[in-house]
Each structure stands twice: as structure tokens, then as C-alpha cells.
What we know:
- The chain is of the alpha/beta class.
- 41% of the residues lie in helices and 12% in strands.
- It is built from ten helices and seven strands.
- Strands 1, 2, 3, 4, 5, 6 and 7 form a seven-stranded mixed beta sheet that branches.
- Strand 1 (31-37), helix 2 and strand 2 form a beta-alpha-beta unit.
- The chain is elongated, with a radius of gyration of 21 Å.
Amino acid sequence: MxxxxxxxHWYPGHIAKAEKKLKEQxxxxxxxxxxxxxxxxxxxxxDNISGLLNGKPRFLLLNKAxxxxxxxxxxxxxxxxxxxxxxxxxxxxxxxxxxxxxxxKAVELSEPRIQALMAxxxxxxxxxxxxxxxxxxxxxxxxxKLTKSSKTKIGAKAGVTRQQQWVRINxxxxxxxxxxxxxxxxxDQERAKKLAFVNSVSENAxxxxxxxxxxxxILNEKQAKAFREYYKLPEEKELNVDNISLERNWLLTGGxxxxxxxxxxxxxxxxxGKIGKFILDTIPE
Length: 285
């Protein structure tokens, strides 16, 4: 049966496996840092996150904040704070000025569980956290950011699988250095396309040509103008893959447009922030 290239496909077997692994990891920690993509502050979040994390305390990091408009991002930060009743911190992998704030928040959220363990007669231990989020939102870069000042691996814990490696960030905080992948059980194709725009979906699940065309279609007026200027596309020409291909002279033998090459460049240029600083979600009314 031929795969529908306009549809982004999800794999239930992979989802079940990811959920099982995530639950195993969660049992080891006191609190969670959930990483979202600042370009998709709503679409990169998981609807049933509290249920998936089994009520584990968490706060949000809006990663790749350097790729979006700061004033626009502030509106989404307020929305997410109200919706999730938790701290929301914008960040990126390039700067460390917010590092102490992130560490302080992780320790603070872990304290109730540590107190509960001490009430049972156990000695105080460092807070234990893990980083979770959708694929490619930057979980590993956040882990690298947290651990760069301390590479002290402290190995497996008693009763914990050997592969679970811990890093001591400071005397108060330990990090499970394996990122938790939130399974993408996603039936909303509009949301699925947005996740594909920022490369949070495996490239095997979609066609570059379809996704690049969809990206051009959803741009607002200001964003479309930035794309036109970047690709030097005149106002009188429609903003689409074929016209960008013609303008850049990316052609196949015989003169027809090279849609695949053009689509790959459009998606890459957008993802690397070369075209502009965009948030592709909109504030719900």
C-alpha cells in the first residue's frame, strides 16, 4: 500500500516503547525539567503531561529562545505559566547566564520529596532531576549546558540499571544524563506539520516538499515578507517552492524546478534561524 505523502505518520509501537522507558526513568528522580521549542511553545508541549509524568513536579524551559522574537515570546511565557501553574524560563544552548536559576529551581522542586524521605528516617541526599521533552527540542543541549561545569559521573545507583548514568551538578543536585523522550501520540495533523517544520518528527515520516510548502502556506504577512527578502523573490511572484527554485536557479536537467533540493534548503534555513526570528504558534482566543 502506497504511503500518503501529505500525511505525517506515527508509529504506535515506538510510542509504547518510549512511554515504558520514560516511566522507568521517572521513578528515579524527584523533579523534571520539561523542554519546549520556543518556536512552537504550544505545539511542542504534551497535552497530558501531568498524567504522563504521574504528577512529578516540573518546570518548563523554552529552548532555542534565540531563534524567536523576545517580545512575542513574553506573551507565550505568561500563557504557559497560567496554564501549567509552574515556572517558565526562556533559554538557549549558547549562553549560561540563566544556569544558576535553572539549578536553583530544580533543587527547590525536589525538596518536598527529599523531606518526605528524611521523615522516613533516610539521610538527606542531593536532589535528582531529569530532562524530558519531544524529540529535537534540545534536551541534550540542555543536559550539556547543565553538566559543562561538572563532568563528575557518579555511575549507577543501587537498584538502578547500569546504563542510567548520573552527573553531580553541585553538592545539592544530580542529573540523570539520559534525556527522556516524550512519546508523540499525535492525531492532529496541523500540529504534526508544525513539529516537522522544526525537525521534531523523523524525516522518514514526511515528504520535504510537502512540509516546506506547508511552512510557506502558514506564514503570517511579516514572516512571508522575511522569506521573500531572504530568497529575493519579487512581490508579484507567489511564495512557493517552485518560484524559490526558479529564483535561486536550482533546476534539474531540462530546466524543471528542483523541488526536493529547494525544499531541503527552505527547511534548513528556517531551522537555523537564517530567515528570521519566528514563533509559528498563535495565542488561542
